[in-house]
Amino acid sequence: MSKSRAEAAAGAPGIILRYLQEQNRPYSAQDVFGNLQKEHGLGKAAVVKALDQLAQQGKIKEKTYGKQKIYFADQDQFDTVSDADLHSLDAKIVALTDKVQSLQQNCRHMEAELKELTSALTTPEMQKEIQELKKECAHYIERLKNIKAATNHVTPEEREEVYRERQKYCKEWRKRKRMTTELCDAILEGYPKSKKQFFIFLKQDRDTDEYVIGITDVVDTGVHCNSLLSVAVFKVSQ
Predict the structure, then answer these.
(1) Cα–Cα distance for residue pair 183/202, rounded to 1 Å
(2) Which parts of the chain fold into alpha helices (H)?
(3) Average pLDDT over residues 23-28
(4) Helix (H/G/I), strand (E/B), else coil: 154
(5) Which fold has domain 3-77?
(6) Who is most buried in 117, 153, 194, 236, counting CB within 10 A?
(7) What residues does the Homologous-pairing protein 2 winged helix domain cover (predicted)?
(8) Where in the chain are the domains?
């Protein structure tokens, strides 16, 4: 046994007696060893020996439950506690419990605040970001200045007119595209060849007849529906 372990074993009875009196609750030898080993460096054999010694001296009480022994402080050494004292102690326990909960809540708030501050930018980082934002702001100010200095501004009325015209022609384009698609589908129902051959069939006349437009152009632009109908019906009927 090392010198430090021997010194700890020699002082074990006093340490354990004081511990049991302060806690005033029953413990097994394993519990006492687990609670005091880290702080005082007591070995389990020294703890068991000290507990048996204290029990034999009558300084603590010992109870046996099966194969396990339980040790606790001698209750005769404590003053008798009245019901009023017990109620007072219960009230103190409640007050202290509330205080602990309040402190724990404050601790959580402070931890959250610390985490937020830790994740925030440092002063040098903020200064750098401010400079970058100032440069970006100056760039936009210069762009705005150039836009205001331009002479080819579009008036709100002109812009609205352009929007109306666009909506008008888009609507007409969709209408004609739909008509052309429906027309082609109707023709293909009675056409003896494939759809691909039908497209090729119409495309061949493009170079020889100025009034005929290929089907691919019709689908894309939605124009010349009547010309396509006339030519397609004429050719299919031949």
Answers:
(1) 14
(2) 3-10, 12-23, 29-40, 44-56, 83-119, 123-149, 156-190, 195-203, 215-221, 225-237
(3) 90
(4) coil
(5) Arc Repressor Mutant, subunit A (1.10.10)
(6) 236
(7) 12-73
(8) 3-77, 79-120, 175-237
